[in-house]
Amino acid sequence: MKSTSQKPLEKLTIFSAKGVQMQTFHLTWLAFFFCFFGWFGLAPLMKVIKDDLGLTKEQIGNAMIASVAATVVARVLIGRLCDTWGPRKTYSALLAVCSLPIMLVGLAESYEAFLLFRLAIGVIGASFVITQYHTSVMFDKKIVGTANAVAGGWGNLGGGVTNMVMPLIFAGFIGMGFLPTSAWRLAMIVPGVILLILSVVYYFNTKDTPAGNFDELEGDAVASSPKAKGTLAIAAKDPRTWALFLAYGACFGIEVTFDNVAALYFAENYGASLTTAGILAGTFGFMNLFARAMGGIVADKVGNAFGLKGKGRLLALLLALEGVGIALFAQSGSLVLAVVLMLGFAMFLKMANGATYAIVPFINRKAIGSVSGIVGAGGNVGAVLAGFLFKSSSISYSQAFLYIGLAVGAVAAVVALMSFEKVEAVKEAEVVVA
Question: Could you tell me the pTM of the whole model?
Fold first, then answer.
């Protein structure tokens, strides 16, 4: 008989690091948090980089697209690796490999070189899939939505902190006597070193499942673990996976886009200084401290009362409110009103993030990694599509936000029409990690 410590937890004790489940929980959201420093560390410095490399609006748009395009493929592949190789090895390898382009992006002296580095750095965005996978297998289905949302939210918080901290790191190098053209390059070494250290820490301080690592499991533990073959095909054949793919594109995809463009938007559209624009953009990300978690908590409560049908309707409602909020934000005529409206749509957007991944673990328990990977890739597909709007020379940033608001509303309608509850009849959904 297995001990309680080998089973998924039924309670999330966020101020505890006792047991492999909570230790993994804290390390996985912390790793994801710092991944944002590498992934979007360049975003709040783009005004300086733009002047240094002589970038045009179209080239900045291309760099924005590159930062999320590579993540689309990476998330699907990383999800598959989680199912077969295990999240511990996958995360450690991803952190180590991606730390290199993050530390070396300062070598770029041309637009082309900068674009290639931005593309390579984008792979680190796949870290989200591992975070959601790891919390999915560490917690019981009664609480998994909350656990996923809190881990994802606290990790996403890195997007907001990055917008605030990277300009300060940049200013620190300026204070040491470096010119702006050198300071932004040196600033990116900091997150790269942190990720390299975390890759080692993660490898030696987490387990693939509460019962142990994939290569250690035997007998019943192997049969009941999420490790399986053909999981990508299983996930791809389920229409619910693609409905969540669209939903995540409409919420997280827009979050990533906003993280990329917010500081520049506030600086150029409202004349805010680099530091002020970074702080304002950072408040958007800071809402992940509670908003995404709230989405997961509410989704779990709705799910316990009304099943997956209720979770689906909740997700559709949050997306609809997000779309309305973005459309209104696009029409704001002052900086104060823009910030107020930003906080409004951010609340619904981040709750939708949490609600989406409160449904993901129930699509197919044997293919958690692949479902999570495809849905996570949807977020980046949404970001890529939105990025094309922001690179267009014929469309203003305000117009781009308006079109995005309308598109999010359309996705909300699709999600509202999708039937999620049939998962209850699928045997695989009842398999738990023992």
Answer: 0.82
